[in-house]
Design goal:
Blueprint (H helix, E strand, L loop, with lengths): L26 H11 L18 H19 L13 H13 L1 H4 L8 E2 L8 E12 L5 E11 L5 E2 L2 H12 L2 E2 L1 H16 L3 E10 H4 L10 E8 H4 L1 H10 L6
Parallel strand pairs: 2-5
Antiparallel strand pairs: 1-4, 2-3, 3-6, 6-7
Bound molecules: zinc ion.
Length: about 250
């Protein structure tokens, strides 16, 4: 599915990377063109790592810094004499690309899967896993906890406990919508582990509720995804939900 984005604009001479051999086309334009010609999506919560060539993230950082400086200028902040904001554009660019939205730009963490040699077929619960994300509407933080229930079968692959944390972090480190984030985690784990059942519950604070808008500091959002045996077997579902400690359900 193609998405709405602005057409590739002619290169802004100010963004010209001086060392670039191909006439200073902004690196984001090149990456977007590759994604489009592959017919792939680049929504806020999509991973685009396979379209980024070595060295391009560094140039993307320069490009985002430049654009962010423009945002600060339009906000009428004197970044020249205000020592607090002199390097803000660079810091924000770095924070987006290498920290809070990193899950868009880097490949999935390498995870070793083990065959289920013991034929484990008991409910496993992993959590709470602390997760940090941002809403794709306002880029405000979403901070919460995730619980994962896995019902393996003898053909399932197993992954180490800490690997669930790394995979969840990779998905969450993108501008997200909580419901879609939980679905993305479920799809990834389903594909890797191939369990009989998979259950995910996420509870999170949305800072677009606390910081702006209605400024409601109490509300949390809770949602879940149930697959396979968790969907078919109400007892299993109840067991999973009962074993999640102090969940504000
Ligand atoms: Zn929001």
């Amino acid at each position: 599915m193609m998405t709405m984005t602005e057409p590739a604009s002619p290169p802004d001479p100010q963004t010209l990377p001086t060392s670039d051999e191909d006439l200073g086309v902004p690196v984001s334009v090149k990456i977007r063109e590759r994604i489009r010609s592959a017919g792939k999506r680049f929504h806020a919560n999509d991973n685009i790592a396979s379209f980024i060539e070595p060295g391009e993230l560094e140039r993307l950082l320069d490009e985002v810094e430049h654009k962010m400086r423009g945002v600060l200028e339009s906000l009428v902040i004197d970044t020249e004499s205000d020592h607090n904001t002199q390097d803000t554009a660079r810091r924000v660019a770095k924070m987006y690309l290498t920290e809070v939205f990193r899950g868009r730009y880097v490949k999935r963490p390498a995870i070793t899967e083990f065959p289920n040699v013991e034929h484990l077929n008991e409910l496993m619960i992993i959590g709470p896993i602390r997760v940090h994300s941002a809403c794709s509407h306002h880029l405000c933080p979403i901070i919460g906890r995730v619980w994962i229930g896995v019902m393996p079968n003898s053909h399932s692959n197993l992954i180490g406990l800490s690997k669930y944390v790394r995979l969840a972090d990779w998905i969450m480190s993108r501008p997200q919508i909580q419901e879609e984030a939980v679905t993305q985690v479920a799809d990834l784990l389903q594909e890797m582990i191939q369990p009989d059942g998979l259950a995910i519950v996420m509870e999170a604070d949305h800072f677009c509720m606390h910081w702006r808008g209605v400024k409601d500091t109490e509300s949390k959002m809770l949602n879940s995804v149930m697959r396979g045996s968790f969907l078919k077997d109400p007892n299993l579902r109840r067991e999973f939900l009962a074993l999640i400690p102090d969940k504000k359900a």
